[in-house]
Amino acid sequence: MQGYILNTLPVKNEDMIVHILTPTSIKRLYRFYGARHSMIHIGKKIDFEEEGGGIFLPRLRNVMHLGHHWENTLERVYVWQRFIRLLNTHLIDVYELDSFYFDMLNRGANKLSIQNPLRVALEMYAELLGFEGRDDRGRQCFVCGEATNHEVGLGRAFLFGHLRCIGGRAFHKDKILEFLSTKSTLHLEDKIIEGMWEVLIKGL
Question: Domain spanning 1-114 has what CATH number?
């Protein structure tokens, strides 16, 4: 079975509880001496076996790291792990799920070899918002309910708000709408990408 490690929780000695996103579920498995193994780390893609019979959780066994070339590049790893941590929080109480999430991470991991990591993360987020039905933006400020103009501030999930209501950086509303529609950042300048990343890391 394949999956992405969403989180690792140390327990007694060097053992760990490992949360793994697979195509159909999030596994919570026990790994003896997991802290000793570099492949048991947030964001890693692994092949593994689940073995029953644990004291309170099934055990994680026969782990193989399915690595990517970009894992030697600190900037790319940093952005990838930040996104994975946000996704883990977003899915914290989920056990069974659609294959969309696993497929989204597969696509993102493949794009990270050649694309700007911030753009990859933002495009994955646009896909997630679309899948969860959260990409349909109204024209009103989410704080006061009044109509917005062509410049907006962005709240979590890229909700539109007046700058006077939420502060922060100004964004061109039509560019954000195009981004959410196309799931692409090609039309966005690097400064806008950096600003949108600052919004994204507030939470999915």
Answer: 2.40.50.140
